[in-house]
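#structure-requests
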Amino acid sequence: MKALKVLIVDDEKEFSDSISEYFKSLGYEVFNTYTGEQALDLLKKEKPDVLLCDLKLSGIGNLDGDDVLDNLKSISPDTIPIIITAYRDEATQKRLAVKGALKLLFKPIKLEEVDILLSEIEDELDKK
């Protein structure tokens, strides 16, 4: 059983770094970045099992979580997307579900709940 590869994308550097360290300590292979552009590069290079991406991202080219999700299937079709957002409106939830997000996590997220979700994904991938 190989470690689950997780790409964490959040423009809040401290948040991204801290959750990255948390999941590394649990044995996951973790990559993290702070912009949509960097996320697309890492998706191409690393082909992670899971993408944990904030919906609203700032950055050089201003690609946000929607843009990353739009490009995901052509870059890394087997990566499972999970979106983090503070926006609880129904339209956002429907839009992201149509784009293929497995789950929406609402800020503030509970790391233990994310770990349970990642463990479930890991179990499902191990069955394949």
